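Consortium newsletter contribution from the modelling node. Members have asked for a concrete example of what our holo predictions look like. Here is one, prepared for the fe (ii) ion complex that several groups have been discussing at recent meetings.
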Amino acid sequence: MTGDEAVPLSQHDILSAAECHDIRARVFALRERWTERSPNSFYTLGAASYLDAPSQHAAYQAAAQVTNPILRENFPELYELTGEFFAELVGEAVYFDEAYALPGFHVHMIHGCGPGGDNPAPRAHFDLQWKHALADCTPQATLSFTLLIEGPSGGASMAVWPVRYQEALQLGFTAREYAARYPPQEVAYTPGRIVVHDGFVLHAIGSAPPSSRGFRVTFQGHGVRLPRGWMLYW
Ligand SMILES: O=C(O)CCC(=O)C(=O)O
Ligand SMILES: [Fe+2]
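And here is the predicted structure:
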């Protein structure tokens, strides 16, 4: 995907329900290895550049050296499948470089929300974490993906606003300002279906219905197009 593609988002079924179930079981068997990001609410299995790299690139790379072997050893077929899927999608070489974090898992514990509902606008963002992850080079193009493994009772989605990073820059508004003013479109996730976009469309984790309960487990990552091909990382 390039920065100027007309359709900003695509979806592809790549895992069966049984495969999602099996991956979910392995993620939970590794609970001791999750990193707590917000108590009793948000965890990652893996290092994530948007959380670990800003102003501490060496710490991000060090964290990746701890979590990459765990991910690689426990989910070998998932990395193989992801690499093959993207190689076909972009029609170019795709690789992982373990100096960076491998794609990993978000685990959200959904406990419902207040009567005011769950507003995704404060979470709205563009995926600019490559600036922190790569530190010293600018990619020719980028991609981001989310693959739902398990959703809570109220389902899982991505909120998308039809505006791009370049427009935000030109018109001088922030992601959150725009999102607070305009309603998003909801892209519903289905377990086993990967949602791919270029990271420059305004988006956020979608709103959870007030009664929703359970786990929202996603396999997440990004890609950068470099001279050698597309490098997939988190
Ligand atoms: O989990 C999702 O729905 C999207 C997460 C996201 O936008 C991100 O991690 O950059
Ligand atoms: Fe994102």
